Amino acid sequence: MESDPRVLVVADADDQLGSLCEDMDRLGWRTVTARSLDAALLAVSDLPVDAAVVQLGSVPEGGLKQLRRAAAPRYLSILGLGAASEDVADACDLVVSTDPHPLQMALRLEQMTRAAVAEEEFMLRRATFAAHGVDLPEPAMNDRPMQVLTAGAADRRFLALSNALAAAGAEAVAAPTPYTAFDYLHERAFDAAVLWGDRDHAPALSIAAGMRRNTRLYHIPLTLYLRDEGEPDLIDLFERGFADVAAAETSEEEAAERVLALARNHRRRQGLRRALDAIRGSDLMDPETGLFSRDLFAAHLARIAKGAGVRNRRLSVCVLRVPDNETMAAVRKGGWLERAMPQIGAMVSRLVRVEDTAARLSSETFALALPATDHAAARLTAERIAAVIACTAFDAGMNRSPFVVELDVGVAEMTPGESPAALLERASIQVLAA
Quick one: 217 exposed, middle or buried, by C-beta within 10 A (0-12, 13-18, 19+)? Predict the structure, then answer.
């Protein structure tokens, strides 16, 4: 599967997007190109591409809808490049007027793909719960205007961005300092945040770092709007948690649309999360953590594996287990580790993506099913969750220092013909070897 392309690029001529394809290939988003709609339809029918990047104008009217139908049952995310009519824009998940930086392209494609996988996963979970006699209702979507936090010192262009957001129907709340930004973030729910990139980005980086450390704020998409022209270190900015970086020359209208695309995706995913969280009190779930119980996880993992085969998507499983060492043995004796496990389980639940399934396999062992995720990405996800938990101090009793839990991690990616049970067993064996 390593040679399978992830992105279909549709353009009239190779030189239009040739350099972008080369850069995307280097970033791990292997590409396949098509110069016509017919060639594109064949590609999405035969290859497991996650998304399509389409030079608007290179396909006839109705072509984008044909592309989606040809990819079914896998949902094909479409990113359009260039000027678009309202009908064409509606057929795309996102439209960008100018060619974005490859890193930005990769990140947006990842966001769109995860949104599509989340929708697929919701349908799978409805089927799993229905098989156990539980109805999982459709997500209730909040119909109030998109709530966007704009943080940074007052500036003509930043104020113009707020006006563009308001003109698009969003409610923009301005915070001039990091302190006021966090006051707002703790007082109300936001669908997205835009941080004004000052000359050293220090205030924006401070806010981003604080949000990354907070499990409630972690998933809010962040956009950095640069003030000065230049070549920022995009890798560093994306690693710090930004979902998008708008260059200084980006118009306020386009920046607003990109922010709102992130906001709409976030709100939908939050709606899915609320719908899934609504059944946390079900008898099918683990009573202490609200995570999937062992038996329910086994049933759902089988359904995910079957769906991955039908849609030709990857599937990885992670196992996280409390280590058997002297420190943990000491806190087990007093029952303090047992008291901490519900909080650890709750943290795992908040830190996973909407489309990921978290379960409690035993008193001190958790498992994650990560659809459309390869081994490397799954390990990063599991290690990130373990790192956040390792930063939390748990009570060890009177006159004793708090303790931390550094979970051991095992990861396995499903191979062709492998059973779900064998996949989970491989991940468990890795934990024992850690």
Answer: middle
3 state SS of 291: coil
The one-character DSSP state at 215 is T
Please provide residue 9's backbone torsions phi and psi, each rounded to the nearest 5 degrees: -110, 120
**Shared domain check, 323 and 266:** no
**Where does residue 330 rank: exposed (0-12), middle (13-18), buried (19+ CB within 10 A)?**
middle
Mean pLDDT per 10-residue run, the chain (434 residues)? 74 71 85 90 88 86 89 88 73 76 80 84 91 85 87 82 92 89 90 82 83 82 81 76 82 88 84 77 87 95 94 93 89 89 92 91 95 92 93 86 92 95 94 74
- Residue 411 has what DSSP assignment? E
Contact criterion met (CB below 8 Å) for 222 and 180? no
CATH of the domain at 323: 3.30.70.270
Based on the fold, state whether residues 29 and 67 are members of the same structural domain. Answer: yes
Domain range for 370 is 294-433
Whole-model pTM: value is 0.75
Closest by Cα among 15, 12, 18, 13 to 37: 12
